[in-house]
């Protein structure tokens, strides 16, 4: 028994070489820094010292109602739940693959009964003619344990482990996307509610103008053309009212899907679109910040898994050694199986040297190399996509401020124009057509302002997402 145990320990601890190619992270096929120019913001001195991906979502989103919705979504969203289960499945698959590195030890017991011919035929001894022999055995055995001399099992284990790590990063990416999706859906709902409120107020004002025009037509101070033009503004506002009513309902349905349940009635009070204050994010970042994004980290883990698969494919060209061994007791009586002196053992090593495999090993190696090259391309594409997303978000941050200032100036000018046109109409200086045109221009500019405000807030959420923010609930304390 002792030699067998020593052999078992030695085979378990036997070191194996690795045939994996030396790994070198591919160079990022993007510029060292993000673009600069008129469309991009300058470095923000007031930005937090911590990187954007470390800012907790509770610290970035200040709206209590939005925080509550994100918390519910992280608990109930089905897509995120599937991502978590995929990680658990990959972890189990890695443990299964890793088990090949160790021998399978089992306790076995058997009974072998043999009946001999009465005439002594079949080559049996004459003394055993017509008799029955029974042998009981019990022992500890290892069955077909392959020594990993060339690292095949270790490479396969590394590949499974990297795939597991890649899915873990994919789960992080799914959570980051979910946080951004909930915030975007919430802001969209606030924007459409604000557009609905504006349309309701405009419809009330335009209905009053229409009734006034109808009265002046009856007394002969207005024309039928003026009445019809006033009617078109009312019909336009009514159509917009139906549109925004529909969009608000659809926004609520989209938000309910993201949080995985109907919208709760006991949500804390929220803020309107104008009251949304998001934490400042750093600008002027080096492009290597992208390597911390979970989707890029997942792509690199997949590349490492493909790299390890090449080592496993290479190891298939070398001989393999399998061990089958057992040690225990043997007796012709079950009652004396563990008390008798009859020790039994067996040791059956097997060596397999691949000579001709029909090109399967070469094809497997070629396939592993092609898959690695594919993962290199996927990794580089992930970096390029992330670079473009951050550059677009920076361009949005650098231009929305100017657009909003100009849009507010336009709203103020249209409001003043409408006020003056109404005064001129009431004093008889000008026709009501000028007032209708001013009212339409004011309504259109107010709509455009709300749309621009919504787009600006969504761009801030996008910036937070593409920099990897949304994984932490709270910002870690600075050391």
Provide a descriptive summary of the structure in words.
- It is a single chain.
- The chain is an alpha+beta fold and 479 residues long.
- It is 58% helix and 10% strand.
- A four-stranded antiparallel sheet has the order 1-2-3-4.
- The two termini are 57 Å apart.
User: What is the total number of structural domains?
Assistant: 1
Which strands sit side by side, in order, in the main sheet? 1-2-3-4
Fraction of residues in helices?
A: 55-70%
CATH architecture: Up-down Bundle
Order of helices and strands: HHHHEEHHHEEHH
The coarse silhouette is elongated
Number of strands: 4
What is the CATH class designation? Mainly Alpha
Topology:
Layout: H1 2-13, H2 57-60, H3 64-76, H4 78-98, E1 105-115, E2 132-147, H5 152-218, H6 224-259, H7 294-315, E3 320-331, E4 343-352, H8 360-426, H9 432-466
Antiparallel strand pairs: 1-2, 2-3, 3-4
């Amino acid at each position: 028994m002792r030699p067998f145990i020593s052999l078992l320990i030695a085979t378990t601890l036997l070191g194996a070489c690795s045939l994996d190619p030396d790994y070198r992270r591919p160079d990022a096929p993007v510029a060292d820094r993000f673009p600069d120019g008129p469309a991009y913001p300058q470095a923000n001195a007031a930005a937090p010292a911590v990187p954007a991906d470390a800012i907790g979502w509770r610290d970035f989103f200040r709206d209590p109602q939005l925080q509550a919705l994100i918390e519910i979504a992280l608990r109930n969203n089905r897509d995120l739940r599937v991502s978590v289960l995929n990680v658990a499945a990959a972890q189990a698959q890695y443990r299964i693959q890793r088990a090949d590195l160790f021998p399978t030890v089992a306790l076995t017991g058997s009974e072998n009964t043999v009946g001999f011919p009465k005439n002594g035929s079949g080559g049996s001894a004459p003394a055993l003619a017509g008799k029955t022999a029974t042998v009981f055995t019990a022992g500890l055995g290892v069955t077909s344990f392959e020594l990993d001399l060339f690292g095949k099992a270790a490479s396969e284990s590394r590949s499974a482990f990297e795939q597991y790590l890649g899915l873990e990063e994919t789960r992080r990416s799914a959570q980051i996307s979910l946080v951004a999706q909930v915030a975007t859906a919430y802001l969209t709902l606030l924007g459409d509610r604000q557009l609905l409120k504006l349309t309701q107020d405009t419809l009330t004002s335009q209905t009053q103008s229409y009734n006034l025009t109808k009265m002046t037509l009856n007394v002969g101070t207005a024309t039928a053309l003026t009445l019809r033009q006033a009617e078109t503004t009312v019909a336009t506002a009514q159509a917009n009212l139906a549109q925004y009513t529909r969009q608000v309902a659809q926004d609520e349905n989209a938000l309910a899907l993201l949080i995985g349940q109907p919208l709760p009635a006991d949500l804390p009070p929220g803020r309107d679109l104008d009251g949304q204050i998001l934490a400042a994010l750093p600008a002027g970042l080096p492009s290597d910040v992208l390597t911390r994004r979970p989707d890029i980290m997942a792509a690199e883990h997949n590349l490492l898994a493909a790299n390890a698969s090449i080592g496993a494919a290479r190891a298939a060209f070398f001989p393999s050694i399998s061990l089958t061994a057992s040690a225990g007791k043997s007796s012709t009586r079950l009652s004396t199986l563990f008390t008798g002196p009859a020790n039994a053992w067996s040791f059956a090593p097997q060596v397999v040297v691949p000579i001709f495999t029909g090109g399967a090993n070469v094809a497997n190696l070629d396939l592993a190399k092609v898959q690695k090259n594919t993962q290199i391309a996927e990794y580089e594409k992930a970096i390029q996509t992330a670079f473009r997303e951050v550059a677009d978000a920076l361009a949005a941050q650098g231009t929305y401020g100017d657009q909003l200032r100009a849009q507010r100036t336009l709203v103020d000018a249209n409001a003043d124009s409408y006020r003056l046109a109404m005064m001129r109409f009431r004093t008889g200086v000008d026709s009501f057509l000028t007032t209708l045109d001013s009212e339409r221009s004011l309504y259109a500019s107010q709509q455009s302002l709300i749309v621009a405000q919504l787009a600006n807030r969504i761009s801030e959420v996008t910036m937070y997402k593409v920099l990897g923010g949304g994984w932490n609930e709270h910002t870690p304390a600075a050391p």
